[in-house]
Write a structure and sequence with these properties.
The complex is a heterodimer of chains A (160) and B (179). Chain A has 160 residues and is α+β, with helices and mostly antiparallel strands. In chain A, 14% of the residues lie in helices and 30% in strands. In chain B, the strands form 2 sheets. A 5-stranded mixed beta sheet of chain B has the order 2-9-8-4-6, with no helix packed on it. In chain B, 22% of the residues are buried. The chains are: A alpha+beta (160), B alpha+beta (179). Strand 1 of chain A pairs antiparallel with strand 2 of chain B, so a sheet runs across the interface.
């Protein structure tokens, strides 16, 4: 009788061993991971700082100016213009056009225009667009305005 | 006369590049795919041709990346993001840390804008939170397994006891019959 009790206790003990091991079987793994990057890809642009649109009469448009932007990185980029103040009384209607004639001659407002510059085969690739200011929609210009300026930011993004 | 006009045109075009701004960022795109509430950091290199201040600002949209900047218009940021909002110097390494707050995929852009505000480059960010089970989940699974094992063992012991009792009873009966 006593032997049986000892035997049962031994069996119970042996059966509990795997449970004890299972409880401690959670291995903690630690690793330092850096996010996936495409280190060789670089986005780089060269944009002119200043463009003088000349003198524009109220109700008319400025001349068209050819503006060059360089892609000096190594990826295809999409360039989009952003007007500092889209509601500016004078500059609210700048227009953009990729080409003056042909398939790419559609005229865009500032919020809807973007153009692509493919990655350069050498150090940089140059692309241009036409830009002008239309004062047709400008109202209440009571007196001459001289040297009025606004910032247009040309934002370059990697093309997706 | 024609030569003079074409000369003026060429000079005017070239003049645009005399005062040009160059900004560069490398890499051009970063993918974050860690778990929600887990922070990861990545170092990016920003260069410029002048020594002006550059401002950094992030914008976000749901799901896949887009070429349309205007689509990045989420008011609530879907991630916790830390970076230096203003930098200077011609070349600097900047640390960008991101902690996803939501399960969905998000796309972001960090706009790096020149002080003159005429040029900006966008560093694309893809956040794809991982749905892998955490270590704690595995632990709970193991604990559940242990409980099942314990119950099975108790059952085996009970069965052993019943069998032993039955055997004792049988041998007792046999002994009684003999006597």
């Amino acid at each position: 009788m006593r032997g049986e009790v000892i035997l049962q206790t031994a069996i119970l003990f042996l059966l509990l061993i795997p449970i004890a091991f299972a409880q401690n079987n959670v291995m903690t793994l630690e690793v330092d991971v850096t996010a996936k990057t495409e280190a060789t890809e670089t986005i780089s642009i060269e944009v002119p700082n200043y463009l003088h649109l000349g003198t524009v009469d109220e109700g008319s448009s400025s001349d068209k100016f050819q503006v060059y932007v360089n892609n000096s990185g190594n990826v295809d980029v999409i360039i989009s213009p952003l007007l500092e103040d889209p509601n500016d009384a004078i500059f609210k209607n700048p227009y953009f056009q990729s080409r003056q004639s042909g398939n790419n001659s559609q005229v865009f407002g500032v919020s809807s225009y973007s153009f692509e510059i493919a990655k350069p085969t050498a150090t940089k690739r140059s692309e241009y667009f036409w830009m002008w200011l239309d004062l047709g929609g400008a109202q209440d210009i009571d007196e001459d305005i001289s040297g009025r300026k606004i910032n247009v930011t040309f934002v370059a993004l990697k093309k997706v | 006369m024609k030569n003079i006009i074409s000369g003026i045109i060429i000079i005017s075009i070239l003049l645009q590049f005399i005062y040009a701004t160059t900004i560069e960022v490398s890499p051009s795109q970063i993918v974050f795919n860690q778990k929600i509430n887990e922070e990861r950091c990545v170092q990016v290199t920003i260069r410029q041709d002048q020594k002006q201040n550059l401002t950094l600002q992030d914008v976000w949209k749901n799901e896949e990346a887009s070429n349309e900047l205007s689509e990045y218009n989420l008011i609530d940021k879907p991630v916790k993001i830390t970076y230096n909002p203003q930098i200077s110097g011609q070349e600097s390494d900047q640390k960008i840390c991101i902690t996803p707050k939501k399960e969905n995929n998000f796309s972001g852009i960090i706009l790096i804008t020149s002080e003159t505000k005429n040029a900006a480059v966008g560093l694309r960010i893809e956040v794809k939170p991982s749905l892998k089970e955490s270590v704690n989940d595995n632990k709970s699974m193991l604990l559940n397994g242990s409980i099942t094992m314990l119950l099975t063992n108790i059952l085996i012991i009970l069965l052993l006891k019943i069998t032993t009792k039955q055997q004792k009873k049988n041998s007792f009966e046999r002994n009684e019959k003999r006597t």
